[in-house]
Design a protein that fits this description.
The chain is α+β, with helices and mostly antiparallel strands. Helix content is 49%, strand content 7%. It is extended, with a radius of gyration of 41 Å.
């Protein structure tokens, strides 16, 4: 295997790139065009590499290191132009004598080398792959038959120190592959095959570099596994391992050693097999191999965090969050490190917890307890109002004050985990099996005695089967749409299938006492929709015309804005081009205009984002009102009316229009015994309000805004 260390060319006092330009411009043997082109290429290269002409040394090794870190696309240069620039710079460096082994260009090869390359053409191989090697060897008087591993090693050193090739090792391997094919196919010219360089970088330690004691233990263990063992022996397999299995075991052990090394353990300190199976060593090795296999860093961090949290919970510390009745302990150790996860009882909040347990044990429901706390002005766990669910919680998930076993001196962790809903993107909690829960006794955090706890849990289990405490599972037509017009909170089913304000029931912060029967609300909404949808087909022409006018206005306004943005973007791009031309054509360091260029790039990014957003929102010219829309509307409404009339198909009709309704606001009645006010809010309300108005009102409203039609978003539904 060919291995030659990289050694930069030794120069007592290397010249700068600025001096290189001066030398080229003073070279009388070059034409004026050639001098200009080479000087321009040097400036262009230094600008792309972001290096100052007066500070950058004119050396192959310096430029090659930086060229390996830059892609032509980053500098805004096309690949063929990038190759031309590198060729011109290499020519300039060779011109001043920095490449003494460089073969002379445009000189005919000797007959031996010309015949060898001609054989490549005969066997349909590309001869230009060996042209650099041929000129290098011919210039030094090396015949094709004399090319061996030593010549290839010298050629690699030449590629590293006197060319701008960013990957000389790969270039050498390609040359060796082609040379060996020539040597095997053209036997009449008697060429030597050379050793292919192995450029692979293995992460495994060299077997000879492993400490002798560890190597001895591994070999002894593998030897014991590969021979027949006594049936009564406690060591060794019943059947000897196959040699291939022994090799696999040895490779796996080398992987374990490599993982331990890359996790921070020096190789010379790994002296026995026992060190490879220590828990911390195994974790470090597994983490290294996860990274090699492409496991996301975030996943590894999550796993490591959970392992750390579990250890802290088992030690009696908090695993995250803080329960009502406790406060976080802030203290530092003698070495200055902070102590995390410690909790202690908050006396005032602990008294509130005992009061809640005592009142519930005495028969007071959670809503009554919450009302008393609110009346006394006692803030809730998060500083706001108390909620009945905060007290009651869930017996299955063990949350809520009455179910929190920490008040009993028992810390429970890992009760649930979260998954993401692929449709909504929201996190959803899932209960873990009880066998996976981590429980630790913390008697110093006990607030409630065993007798009170048992009494409360007995009452909760007794009430859990009551009809009022079972969850409403029936899906209603208007589920999730009804809201209270007074506070904006949701309205839920309670007391014989009637909708009531949930905020009033749970928190007591809303004064709305009105309710509406679910059947009444459904009849009013669906009946009102049926009356408005059917019989108004003739008014759809006016709606279509207003829709066309609004589209035309929006399109004209946004096209004007888009034209201005395109004009500003073009001016910004011209400014960027001027800055680049100044950098490439001037000897001034690019730092002087870098801030201006960065500002222009930021403006370009902002303008492109604004233009893309505006074009995305621009109404498409393809959006037009179909001439037969009234007839189509009549057919669709007739079908929808049929669905609404049939009790069995009403849910299907409601699903068709749910997406057009944002919410249904239910307000208090205007008179003592009158019906509640029901208002539709959403896009469907806009269309229905339009078709339900008379022509005079539409004409008055048509002038609202910028010449367009001001559609409403609410529609009052009359009582059934």
């Amino acid at each position: 295997m060919l291995q030659t260390p990289i050694e930069p060319i030794a120069e007592a006092d290397p010249i700068s790139m600025a001096t290189l330009i001066e030398s080229i411009q003073a070279d009388a043997e070059l034409s004026d065009a050639r001098r200009r082109n080479v000087a321009s290429s040097i400036r262009r290269l230094c600008g792309a590499l972001d290096i100052a002409l007066a500070e950058a040394p004119a050396a192959f090794w310096f430029l090659r290191e930086r060229l390996a870190q830059v892609h032509p696309a980053q500098a805004g240069i096309k690949p063929h132009r990038w190759q031309t620039i590198q060729s011109d710079v290499a020519f300039a460096l060779k011109r001043i004598g920095l490449a003494p082994d460089q073969p002379k260009p445009r000189v005919d090869l000797s007959e031996e080398w010309a015949n060898s390359l001609q054989h490549l053409d005969q066997i349909r191989r590309r001869h230009w792959g060996l042209s650099r090697l041929a000129r290098y060897c011919d210039g030094r008087g090396i015949a094709p038959a004399a090319v061996d591993d030593a010549v290839m090693a010298d050629f690699l050193s030449y590629l590293r120190t006197q060319t701008l090739k960013t990957k000389p090792e790969r270039a050498l391997r390609d040359v060796c592959v082609l040379w060996n094919r020539l040597a095997s196919d053209a036997e009449d010219i008697a060429l030597q095959e050379v050793t292919l360089p192995d450029n692979r970088r293995t992460y495994l330690p060299d077997w000879e570099a492993v400490p002798p004691s560890l190597r001895r233990e591994i070999e002894d263990w593998l030897a014991s596994m590969s021979k027949e063992a006594d049936l009564l022996s406690e060591t060794g397999p019943l059947r000897p391992l196959h040699p291939a299995s022994v090799a696999s075991y040895r490779y796996a052990l080398r992987q374990a050693i490599a993982g331990l090394m890359h996790s921070g353990r020096p190789l010379e300190t790994i002296t026995s097999l026992g060190m490879l199976v220590e828990p911390r060593a195994v974790e470090g090795a597994l983490e290294f191999h996860r990274i090699r296999m492409g496991v996301k860093q975030s996943q590894m961090l999550a796993q490591k965090t959970r392992r750390g949290l579990r250890g802290r919970v088992e030690a009696g510390f908090s695993g995250g969050g803080n329960s009502y009745g406790y406060r976080v302990v802030r203290r530092f150790l003698a070495d200055g490190t902070a102590v995390n996860g410690e909790r202690e009882i908050e006396p005032l909040e602990a008294e509130i917890v005992r009061r809640i347990f005592d009142e519930y044990a005495a028969g007071h429901p959670p809503r009554t307890i919450v009302a008393g706390l609110k009346a006394e002005g006692i803030p809730g766990p998060r500083g706001g109002a108390w909620n009945a669910s905060t007290v009651n919680g869930s017996r299955q998930r063990r949350n809520g004050i009455l179910n929190n076993e920490l008040y009993l001196g028992r810390l429970i962790w890992n009760r649930q985990h979260f998954v993401k809903d692929p449709e909504t993107g929201k996190r959803i909690s899932r209960l873990n099996p009880e066998a996976e829960w981590i429980t630790t006794e913390v008697p110093e955090l006990r607030i409630i005695d065993d007798e009170t706890w048992a009494r409360v849990q007995e009452l909760k289990s007794r009430y859990a089967g009551w009809a009022g405490n079972t969850r409403q599972t029936r899906k209603r037509l208007l589920s999730g749409l009804a809201v209270c017009a007074c506070c904006g909170g949701s309205m839920t089913i309670a007391r014989r299938d009637r909708y009531y304000c949930a905020t009033r029931r749970e928190k007591g912060t809303c004064d709305a006492s009105h309710g509406i029967a679910a059947a009444n609300l459904e009849a009013r909404v669906l009946g009102g929709l049926q009356r408005l949808l059917v019989g108004n087909e003739a008014l759809l022409d006016a709606f279509a015309e207003a829709f066309r006018q609004e589209l035309a206005r929006l399109r004209g306004s946004r096209q004007s804005d888009a034209t201005k943005l395109r004009r500003d973007l073009a001016e910004t791009e011209r400014g960027i081009a001027r800055c680049l031309d100044y950098i490439l054509s001037s000897d001034t360091p690019p730092a002087s205009v870098r801030s201006k260029l960065q500002d222009l790039e930021a403006d370009k990014t902002r303008l492109e984002a604004e233009l893309a957003g505006l074009e995305a929102d621009l109404p498409s010219p393809a959006i037009e009102i179909h001439p037969n829309l009234p007839e189509l509307y009549r057919r669709r409404v007739a079908k929808l009316a049929e669905l609404l009339e049939n009790q069995e198909t009403r849910p299907e009709a409601m699903e068709a229009i749910r997406g057009l309704i944002d919410r249904i606001e239910v307000g208090p009645p205007e008179t003592t015994r009158g019906p509640c006010r029901v208002t539709l809010v959403g896009a469907l309300a806009s269309v229905l309000a339009f078709v339900s108005e008379d022509a005079t009102m539409r004409n008055r409203r048509a002038l609202v805004g910028h010449g367009g039609y001001a559609f409403g978003t609410t529609l009052l539904v009359a009582g059934a």
